[in-house]
Amino acid sequence: MSDQDSDQVPDIEAADAVPLPLPLDAWHRAKGARMVEFAGYRMPVQYEGIKAEHLWTRESAGLFDVSHMGQLRVAGEGAVQALEALLPGDIAGLKPGRMRYSLLLDDEGGILDDLMVLNTGKDFAIVVNGATKWDDIGHLREHLPDEITLTHFDDQALLALQGPKAAAALARLGLTPLHDGGAPLTTLRFMQGDIYDWNGKRLGVSRSGYTGEDGFEISVHGDDAAALADALCDQPEVRPIGLGARDSLRLEAGLPLYGHDLDEETDPVSAGLAFAISKRRRTEGGFPGAERVLGLLASGASQRRVGLKLEGRMTAREGALVIAGDRLVGRVTSGGFSPSLDQPIAMAYVNRDLAEPGTALELDNRGRRLAATVVPMPFVPHRYHR
Amino acid sequence: MTVYFTQDHEWIAVDGDTGTVGITDYAQGQLGDITFVELPSVGRTAAKGEAVCVVDSVKAASDVYSPVNGEVTDVNEALDGEPELVNTDAEKAGWLFRVKLSDPAELSSLMDKTAYDAFVASL
């Protein structure tokens, strides 16, 4: 037997490089993780099994190591304007302690990366994808004005605690706001963040994540990451979760994965990410590719990212063709088995006249025809703490 | 009954001129939770090295190759409702299909258990 499909694990930039260990490398191994190469690092793909880890996260809380992601800071006078020249989001309107999903766009409005940006009150904390971070850093250095400083915190680990019991588990660690007047952890809502003290260690915490569940993302110095991971996994609600379940959870949540569902050839409108183009920016423009992107907003894109539910048990993977009658109408960009729904699901780009929920389509998955129906996303409802 | 192994992680247990084929315990461990098995049609011919079966897991879809030339005589229908048998008992109850060998002599090109275990240890 042999794997025919990618494991949704891109080996970008790592083909000729030795994968690097992350701060929790030994910790994962001690927990029984199977390690794989991902984005140039050795990462845990699973511990007890993807399905069990997936379901545990949906009903309790899972701890994910996402330290491969790039943790950046953009600071300096004029940082707002400098970021708005590169992102389509309303950065000027982003209040201190608030976070926003945004997109790094090229001059044609193609998506270079998707990211989170948080206004810390004195600068902007940005988290970008691991596989694209070096390109992102190069792009930012090239385009940010000289008076703006870009810092890459490559000695910081990033942990995500996700699931309906994440808040209860994290509350037991007794984090306190580092700054006077800082928000107590319990008052954080979805897409808010602040700095906290934990036993003298400084933690950057936001209420966010990429599973569709309530949860937190915690930036911690690499030297303290194992102690924090241990303290979290000591909570009865919490188990470590690998990249495999991270992928199936985000797929169920309808969240696109860069390098699969998004790339430089996709634009925000066909990707269904028009919400990331803030209202003010729609009238003012001034972001890369604004002319094309605003034109697509007005006219509609020729293709749309949609969710598909498949009949039967066989999954369709990235690259499967989407067929309507005898016409090729699109391509699957992510596909897998949904543990929560107990059926195969997928994301695909299809011609816009076929993007309506209920539309019956066929997939050509390695020569096998599978029946599929367009469904609204998310496949599994989001349960953010708003 | 003698069991042989391939470098692609199939096993074949041979009794007379009939072989029972599955994937190894090592292979199921690599694949993770198996969600679906597409079995071959009974009566089809299978060439040695030909993809005749697909094992779909939460992680990936994998082809299973026939370890020998022959004709498929039976498939494990229990897997239709319970594909996870391949995870829990890959080398017994999780068998995939049976094949009538057209040339039992070609088994000599496969590995025995000792050789396969050494092969896996070297991966």
Radius of gyration of chain A using CA atoms only: 21 Å
Alpha carbon gyration radius of chain B: 13 Å
Strand order of the largest sheet of chain B: 1-2-3-9-8-5
Distance between the termini of chain A: 46 Å
Label the CATH architecture of the largest domain in chain A: 2-Layer Sandwich
| Main sheet attributes: strand count, strand direction, barrel closure of chain A | 7 strands, mixed
How many DSSP-defined strands of chain A?
21
Strand tally of chain B is 9
Mean pLDDT of chain B: 95
The largest sheet of chain B, given as strand count, sense and whether it forms a barrel, is:
6 strands, antiparallel
Number of domains of chain B: 1
Specify the helix fraction band of chain A: 10-25%
Quaternary organisation of the protein chains: heterodimer
Q: In CATH, what is the homologous superfamily of the largest domain in chain A? A: Probable tRNA modification gtpase trme, domain 1
CATH C-level label of chain B: Mainly Beta
Describe the structure.
The complex is a heterodimer of chains A (386) and B (123). Chain A has 386 residues and is α+β, with helices and mostly antiparallel strands. Helices cover 19% and strands 33% of the residues of chain A. Chain A contains nine helices and 21 strands. Chain A has helices at residues 25-30, 50-59, 79-84, 133-143, 166-171, 225-233, 243-252, 279-284, 290-299; strands at 2-3, 34-38, 41-46, 61-65, 70-75, 99-105, 111-119, 124-128, 149-152, 156-162, 176-177, 193-198, 201-206, 215-221, 238-240, 303-310, 321-324, 327-338, 343-351, 360-365, 368-375. Chain A has a seven-stranded mixed sheet with strand order 11-12-13-14-10-4-15, with helices on both faces. A six-stranded antiparallel β-barrel of chain A has the order 16-19-18-17-20-21. In chain A, a hairpin with an 8-residue loop joins strand 13 (201-206) and strand 14 (215-221). The longest helix of chain A is centred in the middle third of the chain and has 11 residues, at 133-143. The radius of gyration of chain A is 21 Å and the shape is globular. The model of chain A is unreliable at 5-15 (pLDDT under 50). Chain B is of the alpha+beta class. Chain B has a single domain (2-103, 111-118), classed as RNA polymerase II/Efflux pump adaptor protein, barrel-sandwich hybrid domain (OB fold (Dihydrolipoamide Acetyltransferase, E2P)), CATH 2.40.50. Chain B has four helices and nine strands; from the N terminus they run E-E-E-H-E-E-E-E-E-H-H-E-H. Chain B has helices spanning 25-31, 78-81, 85-88, 113-121; strands at residues 2-5, 10-15, 18-23, 34-38, 45-46, 51-57, 61-65, 70-75, 97-101. In chain B, the strands form two sheets. A six-stranded antiparallel sheet of chain B has the order 1-2-3-9-8-5. Chain B has a three-stranded antiparallel sheet with strand order 4-6-7. In chain B, strand 2 and strand 3 (18-23) form a beta hairpin. The model of chain B has no long low-confidence stretch (mean pLDDT 95). The A-B interface holds A 1-7, 45-46, 49-52, 54, 244, 248, 312-315, 317, 336-337, 339, 344, 366, 368 and B 8-10, 23, 27, 32-33, 35-36, 38, 54-65, 83.
